[in-house]
Amino acid sequence: MAETHLPTADVAAGLMAVREGIRRAADDCGRDPASIGLVAVSKTIAADGILPALEAGQRIFGENYVQEAKAKWPALRERFPDVELHLVGPLQSNKAREAVELFEVIHGLDRLSLAAALAKEIARVGRTPKLLVQVNTGDEPQKGGISPSGVDALLASCRDDHGLAISGLMCIPPADDPPSAHFGLLAAIAERHGLPILSMGMSADYEAAIQMGATHVRVGTAIFGARVRAGSEAREDAARVRET
Is residue 179 within 8 Å of residue 173, measured between CB atoms? Predict the structure, then answer.
């Protein structure tokens, strides 16, 4: 994977600015800032680029790819054992075993084949990461996630057929749409099903997500700077798309 990162001072300043943005957004809508988890998305960031955030007290991190996380996080966790690691990118069913072993929260459950694979590995390993269903709120064909019309059936099958406890929902709104309507839709679905976790909002729109009830915001660029997409990332995404 290509790796890039900002100087230490810039990462610490970016983290501080995002924390302040979360505080302001929470204050504006009468919420407790402490109720909103900041997932610092560290995909493509080398271990030494993540250290400034760890040293500044950040403990929740998000990664998009299992293999990249597996390569860099075990050593970091030896120094910072209280890290909570979230898989925020797409997950291939054949990597469910490693994902269950490595992550505390998996955000991208969006199909029955993946539910079956996760249930098998959870039973085998005896470890139960929190699971979030990814909802494709814009019904974009190029994007992962279950259609809003299919959420009820997927949740029922996860529960009844696979014995999975679903903790919440995640979405990534269409880039060209105002995000608040999509956040509102996700919040309404979560409320209907009594799901406590709402993972929504990224660097450009996390304030709007907080206004609509986000419990977790996933922020990478505003902390670590812009990234270069690696060819291996594109290949892994393509493999995920080919799954049935």
Answer: yes
